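Now for our specimen.

. . .
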Amino acid sequence: MTCLLDIRELQAWYGHTQVLYRVELQVDEGQVVSLMGRNGMGKSTTINAICALVDRRLGHMELQGRSLMDLPSHRVAQAGIGLVPEGRRVFPNLSVRENLVAAARKGAWDLARIYRLFPRLQERRKQSASTLSGGEQQMLVIGRALMINPRLLILDEATEGLAPIIRQEIWAAIRQLKADGMSILLVDKTLRELLSVADHCYILEKGATIWSGRPEQLDRNIADTYLGV
C-alpha cells in the first residue's frame, strides 16, 4: 500500500507554548485513519499543524513524498489536503451552490457528485447557507472540501453537536467515501462509529503518539486508560 501522508517526530507551538512533542502518523492511499485521545491531548492541533495553522512546527511531514513543512496554509490546500475544520464554517451570505464552487478545482468531484452524496444540498442549492440547519451546514462544508478534489480529506469532529439522525447521514457519507477509495484522516468522539470505519487508529496523549494499531487491537484496557470510555 502506498503511503500518502507521512508524519514523524512532529512538534508544534502556539506562540511560545509547545503543544505537540512527538506525533507519529501515517495515512496510506485509500485508508481511513482515526486520530483519538481525550480532549486537549493534541488532536485538533495535529490537524492544524498539518494545515500550517500553528505558529511554528518542526519534524518530518510529507504528502506523497512532498514536504509540507515549509508551505503556508493555502499551499497545503493546493497540495491536495481538504480540511473540514471543527465547527461549521460556511460562507453565510453565499448560496449553497456558491459555497460549493467557491474554491472548486477540476476533478472527479463536481456538483453532480456532491448532490448525489448529499441530496439535501441539491434541494437547497439556491438557499443562503445561513438558512441551513447545523447538519446541512456540515454537509455543505464536507462537500466544499471535496470540491477541491483532495488527495486527503481531513474531518475534525464532523458529527459533533448534530442530531442523531443527521450524524448517521454523515457517517453513511463517510462510509461511501471510503468505498470510493477516498483517503481520510478522521477525528471524532463517537468511538463505536470510528472503529467501524477506520483501517488504522492512533491515540495521542499530551501531544505525542502513544499507541497505534488496527481497530480490533484497541481493547477495553487501552480505551479506559487513554480515552476515558
About this structure: The chain has a mean pLDDT of 94. The longest helix spans residues 164-179. The chain is about 35% helix and 30% strand.
